[in-house]
Design brief:
The structure is a homodimer of 206-residue chains. In chain A, 67% of the residues lie in helices and 0% in strands. Chains A, B: This is TetR family transcriptional regulator.
Amino acid sequence: MSFVGSGTAPDQPVRGRPRSEAVERAILEGTMKLLEDGVPLAEISIERIARTAGVGKATIYRRWSGKEELFVDVLRTAEPQDPEQLPGTSMRDDLIVLLESLRQRGLANRSSAILHNVHAQMKSSPKIWAAYHNSVILPRRRAGVEVLRRGQQNGELRADLDVELVNDIIVGPMLVRAVLRPEADLPEDLAERIVDTLLAGLRPVN
Amino acid sequence: MSFVGSGTAPDQPVRGRPRSEAVERAILEGTMKLLEDGVPLAEISIERIARTAGVGKATIYRRWSGKEELFVDVLRTAEPQDPEQLPGTSMRDDLIVLLESLRQRGLANRSSAILHNVHAQMKSSPKIWAAYHNSVILPRRRAGVEVLRRGQQNGELRADLDVELVNDIIVGPMLVRAVLRPEADLPEDLAERIVDTLLAGLRPVN
């Protein structure tokens, strides 16, 4: 279980051991320190993290099932959080908030050499990538598809479109800029411009 | 100079040394063999390639300025080529051909563990990535932006849109599916569906 993922949520039961949060923080920070020191992901073992954080291996295994889940939580602590609540005023507004949070992640990734490095290494490790995918990317995709379904219901989105494809159409341009083109502009109004351009279409209005 | 990049083009001057193409092929195949054997990019030196290909180091350096350029040519040999000519019948048709070639690359990447692996490793090596970016990605972007400019001139594309952003809007969804979501569908009509959805816009027509 992770302090980032669930430990701080207000609806969670109170921990039996009061020092639990401090211990988890030490483990997450110890792992981050190893990454900051340039140790490759592949060479960071639970044993080494335990040594750096000054805890026993069992203490780590009590909280994370393996190093993959631990890495994902380290990333989540370092990255901007996804929005917990969407405005709900319109599909357009919700999509802009979702895209804006991708832009924020892109900016964070650019300004942090460690984040950038970890992301790059993660792609070479199918297990870590799968853990990140399941706990970060998949929930974000589900939120996007949900917004689009509401848009089809209230008439903001063409009802004949496949929402899975529309989701890729919406996140695609932002991900290209934020992830695939590290030299590309990420201006403040980018989320809004993408969403409005997509809604109106590329064809001139006659 | 590379046999893939320019050596085989019909308008190139005839080589002084007749065995040149065979030598280049041996070097490219030797590098590919090392990758197939699972040797990490970082551990493949020009010396090791020379040994595997049965040539001298000088023979390699006569053709490539360094291992970055050589790797890029190995990738280009293994990946589907970009279209040399666009239909030119309409912006829509040209965009579909460009997106279809991204889809083909995505399919090739999925079916080839080596391609997939090299792409992942490349992201960790700024120099190789820069070489790939300059000789593969940048020309492809330029072709896309050129198609969009023609579309603005002939009235197929809204004249008030920033073509750089539109290019990301068009390639984004395909790249998300082909590169970032290796588990996503890449159906045959995907290029056409993306382009037509973008042209028409997501908003219902009243």
